[in-house]
Amino acid sequence: MHDEKDGWLRRRKKKDPLALLGVAVIAIGILLLIYGAIPLQRVNYKVVSQGSVPVEDPSNNDSFIADPESYYAAHSPIPLDKVECTPDRICYGLQFNGTTTYHSMPSIYYGSASAGLGLVALIVARRVEPVEDTTVHLRPIRIRVDEDICVANGVCIAIAPNVFQFRSQETPTIFAPMAYVLDPTGADNDTIIEAARMCPTGAIIIEDAETGERIHPPLPKS
Ligand code: SF4
To answer: What is the pTM of this model?
Structure first.
């Protein structure tokens, strides 16, 4: 869709950031759901003994016991697969008790929510088309180059070579050739206005051919 006002065309955006965001969020949701579908293994243990570990080892010159888990396992009368101790040195001897298969429920919940949100964003993006911040002048324009301030760097010629050209010099001179308007219809308004905006000295003057309104450079505010 386009809006037209006072000879200016306002374009609607073709790439919608909301739609892109929706696609990205859906992709994240799908990845989370895939992870949630993968069966994971949890190792189970059962408690087979319990006891406390002293701070000092009486059988070793009362030396400090820095690793209560190892001490407990070393002094256990039955073989242990794992030992867990509390900060108070109460330790539990554990033996392997099989494995359990499970799925990551947070991944499934968050994945479903992400995919749903992304879908909503896509639906909203299809209904709402944001306005692009660039405009194009539709009506015919009048162009001239102020040769008094042209510094002959050729930027306008690089952008719109069919519109602007350097004046040819009949005789050699120390002065660079100035730009002039070769063909005002040599490019679309968009390109010509862009060339005028890129002119470092503002030497390219553009007006609305019908109304005479200054398009570039903007007139100073009174
Ligand atoms: S860009 Fe401006 S200064 Fe450079 S050649 Fe064109 S009119 Fe002259």
So the answer is: 0.46
